[in-house]
Design a protein that fits this description.
This protein has an eight-stranded mixed sheet, with helices on both faces. It has a two-stranded antiparallel ribbon with strand order 2-8. The protein is of the alpha/beta class and 162 residues long. The two termini are 15 Å apart. The chain has four helices and ten strands; from the N terminus they run ββαβαββαβαββββ. β3, α2 and β4 form a beta-alpha-beta unit. The mean pLDDT is 97. This is Dihydrofolate reductase. InterPro entries: DHFR (IPR012259), DHFR-like_dom_sf (IPR024072), DHFR_CS (IPR017925), DHFR_dom (IPR001796).
């Protein structure tokens, strides 16, 4: 099962200069809870934006067209078919985690979407790609808690492919 997992502001912004444009601990916790002991897939720019840091207790796949790219401790794959073959062999969910190019290339292959929507606008340079929302059904929404560490209203949305 392939699940796209991302956070965006209310206008669809997902990145700023290779990083997240906001600090929202609830979303980081949600990301960890969903991906722990599973596989995450990200593009080279996203991986490098994280300082090439591997997240603990997760298998990381870096998707890049660069056939010479090395990512110590991560699997490196080069195209959609290679990713889909890997996903089919897994017993646990595999999470597509960004960036925009990876989402655009693979969103149609996803079975589910987990989207965090932050009720604010931020400055940045990367937006989630346009998708055909008629292909998706909203299962449920969980409102995030606003507190001294989580200053922005936010909600976690769960979709499945129709």
């Amino acid at each position: 099962m392939l699940i796209a997992l991302w956070a965006q502001d209310q206008k669809g912004l997902i990145g700023a200069d290779g990083t997240l444009p906001w600090h929202l601990p609830n979303d980081l916790k949600f990301f960890k809870e969903q991906t722990i002991n599973n596989t995450i897939i990200m593009g080279r720019k996203t991986f490098e934006g994280m300082g090439k840091r591997l997240l603990p207790q997760r298998t990381t796949i870096v998707l890049t067209s660069d056939r010479d790219y090395q990512a110590d401790g991560a699997l490196v794959m080069h195209d959609r078919e290679e990713i889909l073959t890997y996903v089919k062999q897994q017993e646990h969910p595999v999470f597509l985690t960004g960036g925009a190019g990876v989402f655009e290339a693979m969103i149609d292959d996803c079975d589910q979407l987990y989207r965090t929507v932050i009720g604010a606008e931020f400055n940045g340079d990367v937006y989630f790609p346009e998708i055909d929302w008629t292909q998706w059904k909203l299962d449920h929404v969980v409102d995030g808690i606003i507190d001294e560490k989580n200053h922005y209203p936010h909600r976690f949305e769960f979709y499945h492919k129709k």
